[in-house]
Automatic annotation (TrEMBL), chain A:
PANTHER family: HTH-TYPE TRANSCRIPTIONAL ACTIVATOR RHAS-RELATED (PTHR46796). It comes from Maritalea mobilis. It holds the Pfam family HTH_18. InterPro entries: AraC_XylS_family_regulators (IPR050204), DUF6597 (IPR046532), Homeodomain-like_sf (IPR009057), HTH_AraC (IPR018060). Residues 149-250 form the HTH araC/xylS-type domain. SUPFAM superfamilies: Homeodomain-like (SSF46689). Keywords: DNA-binding, Transcription, Transcription regulation. One of its GO terms (molecular function) is sequence-specific DNA binding. PROSITE patterns: HTH_ARAC_FAMILY_2 (PS01124). The lineage of its organism: Bacteria, Pseudomonadati, Pseudomonadota, Alphaproteobacteria, Hyphomicrobiales. This is AraC-like DNA-binding protein. It comes from the Bacteria. Coiled coil: none annotated.
Automatic annotation (TrEMBL), chain B:
This is Putative glyoxalase superfamily protein PhnB. Residues 2-126 form the VOC domain. PANTHER family: GLYOXALASE FAMILY PROTEIN, VOC DOMAIN-CONTAINING PROTEIN. It comes from Maritalea mobilis. InterPro entries: Glyas_Bleomycin-R_OHBP_Dase, Glyas_Fos-R_dOase_dom, GlyoxalaseI/FosfomycinResist, VOC_core. Gene3D superfamilies: 2,3-Dihydroxybiphenyl 1,2-Dioxygenase, domain 1. It comes from the Bacteria. Transmembrane segments: none annotated.
């Protein structure tokens, strides 16, 4: 990619998106269902329904663990969600000692409030007309003060740059640590093994190529580092619940509209 | 079709530009304000560096270039009259020594170093007649 002299548009790179707590929302205007694809990240979500006056009611807080499986959501007109996607290296900060069992877990309502008590305060302070997004953004930031956070940021970047194809040994070599240390540190902070996180990244790149290019499945499998087409098909089943030749139209991809 | 640019994806564009200036005496043509892209002043055969994020932004996946890795199977070749001096200057300014200057039977002096990202750089003289 060449950038000509004088091209001044601010570049929003995947890396810069990953490092912010992305703020997303969705309000349904018709009945439907969606498949939320896993991206290895945790979310803090407020689910609500708009009443006759377009005011959010029935607010339910939700906290999700590191996502590795597709999740089906059915909705009616007026159903809405506002969420904060948490940078993967901050999963430990969000889940604390429970991160080890948080993979694909969903805490709703009281269970979510019991885990993050300031969610109760957030719900109490919401007035009619108050902006849910602003309220969510006012949550105390998750301060990751772990000494190993820079190492984990580095590992996450290397995994994304290589499309999930970098090996654990290469990760270790590129960061001057032992494979054992990076495996333990990654799992401890992200809540998933580095290998599983890399497989999710690999799947999303393959899905992107299936959707955007005319390449054959065999070509995409080769480009994305799958041993063969069968391995790629298994990854699509595991992380998406569909096959590469039958991509559903109602997919919700990571990097939902950020407002 | 004509050859346009060589673009090397690197971890840190600014550090790479500074390294090429110090170790090899090249100068920068421009650096994009995002710090994700830079061109060196190398005439028509432009040598440029882009951040690894730019590769990801384009939907590419790459094997990251890192100092301790096996070098990728390609090189850049910089040509100068005094190879021995340029080789020592590069090494004194952070390049990793690889193969010291050697006279080749086809009348060329050739040496190799690795840059800060582990990429192969050949420092060679023009082929003398």
């Amino acid at each position: 990619m060449q950038l000509p002299i004088g091209y001044n548009e601010q570049l929003v790179t995947p890396k810069s998106r990953r490092q912010t707590a992305a703020h997303w929302s969705f309000i349904a205007n018709q009945k439907g269902e969606a498949i939320i694809l896993p991206d290895g990240c945790c979310d803090i979500i407020l689910r609500f329904t708009l009443d006759q006056q377009n005011q959010p009611t029935n607010l339910t807080p939700i906290i999700t663990g590191p996502a590795t499986s597709p999740y089906h959501v059915e909705y009616m007109p007026g159903d809405g969600w506002a969420g904060l996607r948490i940078y993967p290296a901050n999963a430990r900060t969000l889940w604390g000692a429970k991160l080890g069992t948080a993979q694909d877990r969903i805490l709703q309502g009281e269970a979510a409030i019991a885990h993050l008590p300031y969610l109760a305060k957030l719900l109490q302070n919401l007035q009619p007309n108050s902006d849910i997004h602003t309220a969510l953004l006012a949550l105390p930031p998750l301060q990751n003060t772990d000494n190993d956070r820079h190492l984990v940021h580095n590992l996450i970047d290397l995994i994304h740059v290589s499309g999930g194809q970098i090996s654990i040994n290469q990760l270790a070599q590129n960061t001057d640590h032992s494979p054992r240390h990076i495996l333990r540190t990654f799992r401890n902070m992200v809540g998933l093994s580095a290998k599983l996180y890399a497989r999710i990244v690999q799947f999303h790149r393959a899905l992107n190529l299936v959707q955007k290019t005319d390449l054959s499945n065999a070509e995409i499998a080769a480009e994305c580092g799958y041993a063969d087409q069968a391995h790629m098909i298994r990854a699509f089943q595991k992380f998406g619940g569909f096959s590469p030749s039958r991509i559903p139209v109602n997919l919700s991809l990571p990097g939902l509209p950020v407002i | 079709m004509k050859f346009g640019y060589t673009i090397i994806y690197v971890k840190n564009v600014l550090e790479t530009v500074a390294f090429y200036e110090q170790a090899f005496g090249l100068s920068r043509r421009f650096i994009h304000e995002s710090n994700l892209y830079a061109e060196m002043e190398t005439g028509d055969t432009a040598l440029t560096f882009a951040g690894e994020e730019a590769a990801e932004l384009s939907g590419l996946a790459v094997a990251p270039n890192r100092k301790d890795n096996l070098s990728a199977g390609w090189e850049i070749c910089l040509v100068c009259e005094n190879v021995a001096t340029a080789y020592s200057h590069a090494i004194n300014n952070g390049a990793t020594p690889l193969l010291p200057p050697e006279e080749k039977p086809w009348n060329q002096t050739v040496s190799y170093v690795k840059d800060l990202n582990g990429c192969l750089v050949e420092i060679a003289s023009p082929v003398r007649k």
